[in-house]
Specification:
Distance between the termini: 47 Å
Structural class: alpha/beta
Helix content: 25-40%
CATH topology of the largest domain: Aspartate Aminotransferase, domain 2
CATH class of the largest domain: Alpha Beta
CATH architecture of the largest domain: 3-Layer(aba) Sandwich
Radius of gyration: 21 Å
Number of domains: 2
Oligomer: single chain
Shape: globular
Strand content: 5-15%
Length: about 250
């Protein structure tokens, strides 16, 4: 059956509600780190499809595992447990630090962050969260509010303010364009120590948690300097504030 590419693109324009700026490509297949579009053009997939395909497209072991599972059980309502869920939970605990003992499985990065925020609020009885400039934490009302400080995403929030909490924002560790006009290492990690100032003076209620990305993704692939996270960990431990690492894009660890 012949495919009318122009008509398919028109269907996309007429029928799909976009949630991002869409590249006008209709993908049809992928192998390893490359994909092909409906016109047969090949591209290197530098996104790994929103960082979900760490071993590439159409990996034979992944395909085999999917086929094996779907022939047994395609889906299980969240009220029930199943064998892959239990074995995955056990494996995750095995490869994470000893302080972790339980797993909450989510459907997306946004729900994972909101789940962590729920736990932090329950633990601290606090209401305020601290986030960093240029952070990205998801697309739900709450997670959009926690991030999106850079210009290209500000319009996403417009008109939604009533439904969004207001985090306490502090400067991120951006040595290339330091907000404090300091130089590393002479700065002695002033940006990390500024978090302590925010904990003391910026919150209207008890701080429920600090949310940050180990490497800021959408905000510019910004990597903090050595020692930054150790100082952040010290501050959060001293003030008994949960430290929430958003590793959705960077990968666990």
């Amino acid at each position: 059956m012949s495919v009318n590419v122009k008509e398919l693109k028109k269907i996309g324009e007429r029928r799909l509600i976009g949630c991002w700026e869409h590249t006008p490509l209709i993908l049809t297949e992928g192998r390893g780190c490359t994909v092909k579009d409906i016109e047969g053009k090949e591209y290197v997939d530098c996104t790994a499809q929103a960082w979900t395909l760490s071993v590439g497209h159409s990996h034979p072991r992944v395909i085999g595992a999917v086929k094996d599972q779907i022939e047994k059980l395609a889906n299980a309502f969240f009220a029930y447990q199943n064998v892959p869920m239990l074995t995955l939970a056990e494996k995750l605990i095995e490869i994470t630090p000893e302080s972790f003992s339980k797993v909450l499985l989510g459907l997306s990065g946004s729900t994972a962050i909101e789940g962590a925020m729920h736990l932090a609020i329950r633990y601290t009885q606090g209401q305020d969260f601290i986030t960093l400039y240029q952070g990205f934490h998801g697309r739900t009302f709450t997670t959009v509010a926690m991030g999106y400080t850079y210009d290209s995403f500000i319009p996403v929030k417009r008109g939604m303010e009533r439904f969004m909490p207001k985090p306490i924002r502090v400067p991120n560790a951006y040595c290339y364009r330091c907000y404090f006009a300091l130089k590393y290492p002479e700065c002695k990690l002033f940006c990390a120590k500024f978090v302590e100032t925010a904990l003391k003076h910026a919150a209207d209620s008890k701080v429920a948690g600090l949310i940050l990305e180990p490497i800021q993704a959408n905000g510019g692939h910004i990597v903090p300097p050595p020692g930054y996270f150790q100082e952040i960990r010290r501050i959060c431990t001293e003030y008994d504030v949960p430290l929430i690492f958003d590793e959705i894009q960077t990968g666990m660890g």
